[in-house]
Amino acid sequence: MTDTPTQLFIGGAWVDAADGATLPVDDPATGEILCHVADAGPKDAKLAEEAAVQAQHEWARTAPRVRSEILRRAYEIILERTDELAHLMTSEMGKPLAEARGEVAYAAEFFRWFSEEAVRIDGGLATLPDGRNRMLLSRRPVGPCLLITPWNFPLAMGTRKIGPAVAAGCTMVLKPAPQTPLSSLALAAILKEAGLPDGVLNVVTTSRAGEVCEPLLRGGRIRKLSFTGSTAVGQLLLAQSAEAVVRTSMELGGNAPFIVFEDADLDKAVDGAMAAKMRNMGEACTAANRFFVHRSVAQEFGRRLAERMGALVVGPGTRDGVDVGPLIDRRGRAKVEELVADAVERGAQVLEGGRTPEGPGCFYPPTVLADVDPGSRLMDTEIFGPVAAILTFDDEDEVIRRANDTPWGLVGYVFTEGLDRALRVSERLEVGMVGLNTGLVSNPAAPFGGVKQSGLGREGGRVGIDEFLEYQYLAVPVN
């Protein structure tokens, strides 16, 4: 921990908060304080904004190949420091080291992907239909951006936003979640080492998000907001962005249905359930939330899933052999406890887990509930914990209706061996992404995002850079 920056990163320099404030960073496995980092206030945010605005003109004019090579160097540095970054992430967030190492590789890949996209920004030339003018289209960076990242994937959510912004030629103010600021500060140090010019990326860690972000969004100099987090906070930020007509992309909450038809390969379905539910201890917007299983296979699916969940080892993420680390904090664990208790009171059968262990840390056991009442609170709440809630269904139209009966629409999972049904159901689900016979959809080369209240825009893939670019149309008379 001694080598990890703990100050704000503004204009290429490490600085304390203007008022000297700090905030603690806790280890969720023990509840102990790891360290303190600078706690930015409005004055620090304005300094970071000023640094980004001042750097924007020159950065936008930087050759795409230069931007590409900076990202490529940062990608290589991240991979070289996989163990160091994984331990840092596990310490502040709790996930097991094996998962943390996986996130490091996932995070690095966004930099490699967008290093390649940086040199493929193109425009167009065409004669307009009336023959009077030529249309010259060019693409240019949208301008200074505010990037707000969550705590559950502290490194990957940073690279997923920073990568396309750097590639497009945008400067940035990054505000990471207060629970996990260290991964973002380490990332800033890596980018500086990779040659990113001063002021292009500025990082403000803060416990005062409203005081820091609202003035930036209303001030008119930030031209783009990219946010990953809850739908409620996203709605607030959208309202704040409206005054200055800030361009927004929002990756918000999810309530993913996981549908198992009677013809599904149950081995595949259980493997997919483990991936879709237990990645990151269930603390993921893509986590399977509602397990709809055909009545004819529900008992066997529940038995197999409970057996697999019960075999997982719970403990500190740094300990060898641990599969499931702690939840992020006591408030997060209390929410899971309340949701499970409500379901059980309504008649749900506990097949596995369901009881909070004694001792320090924010641990909760992998839990499987069967015969869940559709009116249970966890049916319309993002659980963000290791709880699989199983409901039964009898026919296709019924399950599609129930799966779509939610304001969210990020991802859905479908398990069936019938090609016609697979395509038909996938097309009818009101989601931005579908995992067909797989429990893992996230990939830097694929567009990530949802519909309805799960967000606006897409991150990753060939379209990910579009969120940070504007078109300019130049009319040229035909002589």
From TrEMBL:
It comes from the Bacteria. PROSITE patterns: ALDEHYDE_DEHYDR_GLU. CDD domains: ALDH_F5_SSADH_GabD (cd07103). Keywords: Oxidoreductase. The keyword Oxidoreductase applies. GO terms for biological process: gamma-aminobutyric acid catabolic process. Its EC number is 1.2.1.20. Gene3D superfamilies: Aldehyde Dehydrogenase, Chain A, domain 1 (3.40.605.10), Aldehyde Dehydrogenase, Chain A, domain 2 (3.40.309.10). It holds the Pfam family Aldedh. The active site is at 251. InterPro entries: Ald_DH/histidinol_DH, Ald_DH_C, Ald_DH_CS_GLU, Ald_DH_N, Aldehyde_DH_dom, Aldehyde_DH_Superfamily. It is an enzyme of class 1 (oxidoreductase). Residues 14-472 form the Aldehyde dehydrogenase domain. GO terms for molecular function: glutarate-semialdehyde dehydrogenase (NADP+) activity; succinate-semialdehyde dehydrogenase (NAD+) activity. Belongs to the aldehyde dehydrogenase family. This is Glutarate-semialdehyde dehydrogenase DavD. It comes from Streptomyces jeddahensis. The lineage of its organism: Bacteria, Bacillati, Actinomycetota, Actinomycetes, Kitasatosporales. The gene is davD_1.
